[in-house]
Amino acid sequence: MLIPRQPVPSLSVPLVDGGTFDLASETPEFATMVVFYRGLHCPICATYLKELEALTPQFNEKGVTTLALSSDDAGRAAEFATKIGANNLRVGHSVSLPKAKEWGLYISEGHGTTSIGIEEPAKFSEPGLFLIKPDGTLYFGNVQTMPFARPDFKPLLGALDFVKAKNYPARGEYTGPVA
Prior knowledge:
This protein is an alpha/beta fold. It has 4 helices and 9 strands, in the order βββαβαβαββββα.
């Protein structure tokens, strides 16, 4: 489990555009938003990340850079990026399943063809959303076992003004004993 205010695992992945995303090289004013998605086979992921694509300029204005990534290979990721019209949102690919587990993501086994007629990979990671501070520590994290009911981007976007103005700390950092 990742712990708020503690360093997150390293993350370096190829991007659909041919570049490389390296979390250690990110220099956002507030945070980097890393959104792990299930893959090309997931229609819910496409709808969800179309919204992030549209909101990425607003996140950038508030000091947050964005990245969506999956364990899909380059071809599937490129098809996904085209499907969601990714012009603002960076799309990474080829995340290894051990790396996904290092980030605390759940792993699922494929169950054939999805409702949109695309074959699920043999294994893939389930969704996760993380805000990583410029010093490489976790500010916010959300990990799911299903593609449904993900964090809504608009309230998250709205909360940024508050958390920045109040210097609101990352929460959930306590790891000691509880009674």
